[in-house]
Amino acid sequence: MNSFVKIEALYTESDRSVSSLRRIYKDHDLLLTKIASLFSNTLTEKEIAGKKVLLKPNWVRHSANDLDELCMRTHNNFLLAVLDTILQLKPSSVLIGDAPIQGCHWDKVVNDNLSEQIDSLSTVHGIPVRIKDFRRVTFEPSKNNPLQERNPMSDYLLFDIGKESFLEDITSNGKNKFRVTNYNPDRMTAAHRKGVHVYCITRELFEADVVISIPKVKTHQKTGITAALKNIVGLNGDKDYLPHHRLGGTGLGGDCYPGKNYLRYWSELCLDFANRRQGKAAYWLGYKASRVLWKLSLPGRKHHISAGWHGNDTTWRMVLDLNKIIIYGKRDGSLSREPQRQLYSLSDGIIGGQGDGPLKPEPSALGIIAFTNNAGMNDLAMAIVMGFDPMMIPLLKSVYSESEINETRFFWNNKESSLTELKGNAINIQPPPGWNSYLK
User: Fold this and answer.
1) What confidence tier does 13 reach under pLDDT thresholds 50, 70, 90?
2) 3-state secondary structure string, the chain?
3) Would the pLDDT of 440 be above 80?
4) pLDDT band at 301 (very low <50, low <70, confident <90, very high)
5) pTM for this predicted structure
6) CA torsion through residues 406, 409, 413, 414, sign
7) Does pLDDT of 1 surpass 80?
8) Cβ proximity of 25 and 75 under 8 Å
9) Is the CA virtual torsion 370, 373, 375, 381 positive or negative?
10) 33, 38, 103, 212: which could form a disulfide with 140 (CB 3.0–4.6 Å)?
11) What number is the average pLDDT over the span 17-34?
12) If pLDDT is split at 50, 70 and 90, which confidence band does 275 have?
């Protein structure tokens, strides 16, 4: 199948505002019509009937404020419209699942109202629909309340892609520097070292016949933007297996922040001390010491203990590893040279997220939805419509290929277009704080 990216604009030339776009989420029939149009000739009843479908929304975290429902997560009404459209194509079953951050309150994301509407659609169409939290571990640092083994390891496949990993080039022979904030670094060391790169993938992926990712288009501290490529991370059930940065500043061989600052470095070591003692009283000693030291280092906008800046050279590699597994991974834990499944992505960009994404974004009047069978080409297009230069974003620069671009058909409102022509539809999106001056 040839690559395609179909973008549908839902704003008018005279009104591209958050206030007008938010009303679209309330128009179920309009969403059904737009989604069905994008699916036509690709996701038909012939393609879906009798098959197991996995829907992967972006359920990163519960809302901290009312606007989060608009710009942080895949909107509930958008997800319901996708589900309704798929159920009309008569699959044998549908699973909706994600692995949000460990501090996410699942019942505030999949609340009673959403569950009831999903159950109602399942009943109307006579097709079973399940919802699953893919996380193995939950933990809120402010409460020091780790909960391990939420799902048994038998629900996952430990997938080692070894030297095929994009992380291999930055993996040291000595002490492992890979980190993910608020997780035990020793477990990361066991999963990622020279020649070994293991991920914890839900087995639900390998049992599905059709996988449809439903990302929210927004900015991201660590990768610049998040859309089709980054949304796949939620199919990994344990973030102990997900390198997000390397210990230390660039002057100390890491990529957490620019330069060399020993107060920040000691702050990181104190956080390591705390994360090794989650659930114990000693956790608080390391956690509070880390916060004090970080504050004393007088951090700027590019200095973030979670490596939220444009110099992060780790997260984008992990993202590409997971996309490789999702497409080429076999049930026996090996990588094939041929695609093992078709991954589709339907992006919710009706209201996008800008600024301090992915967890603290502000609404932006992006006004689009996009359907693709090529996540990399989709995200190049999304960056352009967001007003960014894709070549300034390592994740997108890594997937940029003139030959692949030439072989991909781009559409804007059913009219064939090009990446260059898409610039005429761009909106100025506020970058994340650690990317602000860099992307501008």
Assistant:
1) confident
2) CCEEEEEEECCECCECCHHHHHHHHHCHHHHHHHHHHHHCCCCCHHHHCCCEEEEEECCCCCCCCCCHHHHCCCCHHHHHHHHHHHHCCCCCEEEEEECCCCCCCHHHHCCHHHHHHHHHHHHHHCCCEEEEECCCCECCCCCCCCECCCCCHHHEEEEECHHHCCCHHHCCCCCCCEECCCCCHHHHHHHEECCEEEEEEEHHHHHCCEEEEECEEEEECCCEEECHHHHHHHHECCHHHCCCEECCCHHHCCCCCCCCCHHHHHHHHHHHHHHCCCCCCHHHHHHHHHHHHHHHCCCCCCCCCCCCCCCCCCHHHHHHHHHHHHHHECCCCCECCCCCCCEEEEEEEEEEEEEECCCEEEEECCCEEEEECCHHHHHHHHHHHCCCCHHHCHHHHHHCCHHHHHCEEEEECCEEECHHHHHHHCCCCCCCHHHHHHHC
3) no
4) confident
5) 0.97
6) positive
7) no
8) yes
9) negative
10) 103
11) 97
12) very high
Residue 146 tokens read as 């780790």
The tokens describing 294, both together, are: 């970080």
